[in-house]
Amino acid sequence: MTATLDRTVCKRTAAVATADGARLHATVEGAENAPVTVVLAHGWTLSQAAWDDVSTLLADQVADGRLRLVRYDQRGHGRSTWGEAEISVDQLGSDLAEVLDQLAPTGPVVLGGHSMGGMTIMCLAAARPELFGDRVRGVALVATSAGDLTSDPRSAGGRMAKLRPGMLSALLAGARVLERLRNLVPPTHPRHQKMVRELLYGADATDEMVLEGAKIMHASTLRSFLEFMPALGDHDKRTELAALSRVPVEIFVGDSDKLTPERHSIQLTEVLPEARLHRAERTGHMITQERPQLVVDGLLRLVGEATGGRDAS
């Protein structure tokens, strides 16, 4: 008789309660006694589904007990609620601290953040530096920025910054009507996919990638888009990243990224000279979809370092 390997993976959903009343929807995969927990934070107007391709590539390591994987929806995104706190990226950093405290209270942790998720990690590092080097043993920053998102008028962030607070308030007041109008051009519509491809993807992105990304973003609300936009413009942690210098850092950027162009990743390496920078050619902002293996390789290097140099791959 041939023995078969049990590949059953423990998977559960959890609700992380925050002090201001938000409930963050999280997915936890893997054994409680895994040697390291990988926690992934997604970007603006996305959800934890933006990490699906990375999660799939990590499935063997999760099944083998080499790591535990936690993904969650940022407040106001996916299945997470809003809470009562004022919207800011600093608040997202506090939310991430709650995720760690409630879902990974002990043992080494590796953090991965895409776009706004990377900014979330930076805010955690600024507010809770004592976590880095002790609990947090490695960080992957994917298509993200430490600040100055809106100063270049030619960039996507610069163009969005032209929307003044009064305009944003008016749009938010009419959100229900605008949501109905938005549904007239669903993700399957060629015009919708063309817009998403031009803004977020590189030359090698497949139609399937673009459609999946469009679906994830379309599932987000107009409120998420409008209320977080000023918060992203206010984000600036360029002088508050000292805690990240205590741990290995992997930085990823696409050469065609229009939201967080390469200059933002270069600025990060100037502050964190020991960080490893990976530039993906013919790749846009959605690296977790476009080049998931590149991101996974970086995460596994961090996992190996977090567990004393053992190879996690």
List keywords for this structure.
alpha/beta; Rossmann fold; 313 residues; 8 strands; 13 helices; globular; eight-stranded mixed sheet
Draw up the topology in text.
Elements: E1 11-17, E2 23-29, E3 37-41, H1 52-57, H2 59-63, E4 68-72, H3 89-103, E5 109-114, H4 116-127, E6 136-142, H5 156-160, H6 165-173, H7 175-182, H8 190-200, H9 207-219, H10 222-234, E7 249-254, H11 262-271, E8 276-280, H12 287-290, H13 292-306
Parallel strand pairs: 3-4, 3-5, 5-6, 6-7, 7-8
Antiparallel strand pairs: 1-2, 2-4
Helix pairs in contact: 3-4, 6-10, 8-9
Description:
By secondary structure, this protein is of the alpha/beta class. The chain has a single domain, classed as 3-Layer(aba) Sandwich (Rossmann fold), CATH 3.40.50. 40% of the residues lie in helices and 15% in strands. It is built from 13 helices and eight strands. An eight-stranded mixed β-sheet has the order 1-2-4-3-5-6-7-8, with helices on both faces. α4 links the parallel β5 and β6. It is globular, with a radius of gyration of 19 Å. The model has no long low-confidence stretch (mean pLDDT 90).
What Rg, in angstroms, do the CA atoms define?
Answer: 19 Å
Q: Oligomeric state of the chains?
A: single chain
Mean pLDDT: 90
CATH architecture grouping: 3-Layer(aba) Sandwich
CATH topology: Rossmann fold
Name the CATH superfamily classification. Alpha/Beta hydrolase fold, catalytic domain
Number of helices: 13
The H-and-E topology, N to C, reads as: EEEHHEHEHEHHHHHHEHEHH
The main β sheet shows up as: 8 strands, mixed
Strand arrangement in the largest pleated sheet: 1-2-4-3-5-6-7-8
Runs with pLDDT <50, length 5+?
Answer: none
What is the CA–CA distance across the termini? 29 Å
Number of DSSP E strands: 8
* Overall tally of domains: 1
Proportion in helices: 40-55%
What is the general shape? Answer: globular
How much of the sequence is in beta strands? 15-25%
Structural class comes to alpha/beta
